[in-house]
Fold these 2 entries.
Entry 1:
Amino acid sequence: MRYLRLMGLFLKSSLLVELEYRVNFLAQGFLGVLYAGVSIASILLFFSQSNRLGGWTLDEALIIVGLFTIFDGLMECIVLPNIKRLVENIRNGAFDFTLLKPINSQFLSTLRYARLHGLTDMAVGAVVIITAVGRIGYRPNLADLFGFGLTFGMACLIIYSIQLAMATTAFWFVKVDNFTEAFRAVYDTARFPVSAFRGGLRIALTFVAPIAFMTTVPAQAVLGRLDAGLVLGSLGFGLGLFAASAALWRYAIRSYSSASS
Amino acid sequence: MISLARKYVAFGKAAWSNMLEYRAQILLWMTGSLLMIVMLMVWLGIAADQATVGGFSAVDFTLYYMLGLVVRNMTAVWASWELDTQIREGTLSPQLLRPINPIHNHIAANWVEKIIRLAVTVPIAAFVIALTPGAKIDLSLGALAAVAAALLGAWAVAFFVDYLIGLTAFWTTQTSAFIMGFYGLRIVLSGTAAPMQLFPAEFQAALTALPFRYMLSFPLEIALNKLSPEQILSGLLIQWAWVAAFVFAVAIVWRLAIRSYSAVGA
């Protein structure tokens, strides 16, 4: 309860900051729309040459593009700004003040800041998904929507955990902002159904870097193509990675010896 | 001329030692190139079901994207990011006191960085092409010369557009948004998402006229024997016209900029 109230406060202060920089907000929002357009255009190029992409039709693949755009916005909105601050704070010693506050340090370090222009990406992504589902004959039933909610939540957890784990390495290495860059490059594959890739790469994107569980599986849920194995995989990766990254965080905190003074 | 060459050597040496300091970072910047490999994989998946996709066989796609990987790294420019920081934070001021335009420093540093980028990407491309049965590059001497001219042109278009965008930092704080926006357009319009030939016919005229094609796709099209001699010639003309236009624009904007520049911070 207390943490929910804090979340509200964090959001409010972030909104106030954002309103200070309105031009920036507009420019970034416009960029979000542009990049959604880039994703859609590249999908359309594939479908101008073939009517299936890894067994998916255009409208089905657009659901994946929508999810890709939403997660893009989510990272832009919450994950990246917090990680940037965290890495900076660890480097200059300001992380001491985070530890001194009577709140869970992981909660404070990863959810404190929000850059709200990421909301435009999320809105564009949602519009793309709703349009695509509208064009497909299949109407998702209640169970599908529940499956979507579950796998979508797990996808958020997977992204959060991977980024948290990368940020945690800042306790040992100085320059880690670049890890997020490397993650970005792998995440780029999430704009296509994982079945568009063949052989070893598809297996790697499912089991090593769980890209499949970020966009392909929630899209399958909307289309009523979820099975028990996928749900278990989604739960396993989501909860497992979260537990692992939280454990790494606690271990890192214990070995933290301030940088300042 | 000789004194300018000596200055380039000095700038290059400084950039080289700076780069050795941050070599891991350059490798990470190169992860952006992975997009070429991702696109290749998806196209190969589509080409597996059909014999050719819009005139491109699986071998063509491999050649296109592997050579593309090299060209993309040859035309990678990040001068705009540096200009943006230097102008916003005021570190440009000491450079303005020197009796040489700072653009020469950016060009020298950019060429030096190519050494590392090419040392990584050329062996990867050569290895993949050698392992692909039926993949070979068969070019006449004239076509080879055209490829060389188109490559240099591709670098020049990419560099001067980027520099022009960087110069906007004299007037606005949103330069990074311009850079990212241009980069997004470049993914689609320069031939990263798909080779130009696979775009619908109604876009071809616009793609030929816009500068994007000349930053990546054009030299690849020549190398893959997809263009007639007339198309190569008219392409080179358009490409170098863009180069001239952007060089001219950079020169004009630079003059306007330093006239109105009042350093930040100091």
Entry 2:
Amino acid sequence: MTQKFDKIPELPKGSFERITLDAKQAERITKPSVSFWQDAWYRIRKNKGALLSLILFGLIVIMSFLGPVISPYEPNAQTITHANLPPKVPGIEKLGILNGVGTLGGEKVDLYELKNVEVNYWFGTDGLGRDMFSRVWKGTQVSLFIAFVAAAIDMLIGVIYGGVSGYFGGRVDDIMQRIVEILTGIPNLVVVILFILIMDPGILAIIIALTITGWTGMSRVVRGQVLKYKSQEFVLAARTLGASDSRIIWKHLMPNVLGVIIINTMFTIPSAIFFEAFLSFIGLGLQAPDASLGTLINDGYALIQFAPHILAFPAILLSLIMIAFNLIGDGLRDALDPKMKD
Amino acid sequence: MAKYIGKRLIYMVITLALIATFTFFLMKILPGSPVASADKLSPEQRAVVEARYGLDKPLPVQYFDYMFGLVQGDLGISINQFKGADVTDVILSRMGPSAQIGFQGMVLGTVLGILLGMIAALRQNTWIDYTSTFVAIVGISIPSFVFASLLQYWFGLKWDLFPVALWKDGFMSSVLPSVALAMFPLATAARFIRTEMIEVLGSDYITLAKAKGASGSEIAFKHAFRNALIPLITVLGPMAVAILTGSLVVEQIFAIPGIGEQFVKSIMVNDFAIIMGTTIFFSVFLIVIILLVDILYGVIDPRIRLSGGKN
């Protein structure tokens, strides 16, 4: 690996220039300082999957409120003569899809013509002649409502429980953690089913069943974070300056723990949506005529052979929401995870 | 280690006792009599029936009888679904199909997931990687009952490749349900292995192996894969939970005479003895699996400080 230089090439004078270092310049901040949230937003924007999911989810939320309103039919209004109509959307019917053609006795026929239906049902109708378009969006609204409320309650209990346990430590922490250890030992499925059985079926029952032990995950994460931060110097400094417990918790610990809380919540929501649909599917969900995505899928499954569209629309929507939420959650985790910043 | 296992066992017993107590009193406070059409019976008949199910004794005695029976594996007597049959027998007789599709789904999903994750990590940021990531996201997001009904509609009904439902054609009947259950383990394993492999591939000992002239496949299999595989044990617990949860609906969809299908039915007909028995059976199953996974992980990877608990 020895290389010989016969001659060092000569550099013309003036190639280099002496610069003087200014001690003041070294401290100058050249870029505008970026706050944690600006930085996170920048990272999220760069994540195409998460950004698309965010837009998609926004559209779904808007439609869940707008859908039942723009549809000329009430979600629960029955028109028996219009039962089991396939979807028909004016405009794209010429493309050969969503043209109101369904199978009857093994043959493809335009069921709208056959049944003398003048109007269009964009997502078709179900077995009782109810408009699937307004039902699906109404169901989405109900499913999202259950998931968001359940996630919010989980977050509230989890943050308070985990925060108290981690911040005060000692005997309090010991007892609180033993309780959590036993609660997390009980399988989620078992808890949810047992609680649904005691209560009258409905939205409230599902929310309570989902949150009764659902908060333990959040409490563990928050406790871990609080334990990590409370022994750091900035907390000690605040305490030395005479800050009260509540000030330390709200002003110093919370902003640091917030990222983890958000990430955790973003993963609670899809799991709540899943459980609601799951319960509805095994017959423990909302009672007719109320509909959620889960009950719609359950109803549609019964008619899968004759009218697959009744299953298709709620199933597609449920899957889209789940995919969007998982992608947003992944994106947020990458954007907010403090470990990535090191 | 022994101390850790002992501690975990004690927690397990407390948790199970709590679940059993809870389910017992739940059954007591639920409205209606477990004796079908109780109003039509004469007081004498009623007394006979109640004595048969031990309902004539005071509550604390019933409770201790029940708990004592549990310890011996006696889950009580079915009230209306399987008239008078032992719940334990009902569950045991239905274990076969459930265990088969659960096991097949788990193995299929994990093996395919590991392969997918590995290929994705070795071809990071290529279309193979993106496809595998997409498959993983879809697998985690789409609920098993949606996936199961899709499989049933296309592979069973439209293309007629597999039996649409029922448990009559041996292995062929188990294919679609197993595939439906395999989606979650597949997606989880793929995601997990990909992350682990990428981390391992960037570590110093891989650079050393490269510097010493190890071939690509040698690095991939001998060094990276083996070290990426160990942490996969930690997600076996959640996978088992997902398979069990999924089996309730997947068995329902494919009309498989397993525990899940019978559980859903017992909920519909309010057979509380079966509901309770199955609940306790599920709890024991899941709690034992999670305990085994934790112990296994500690044994295989000595770096884990068990006494410290998971972060």
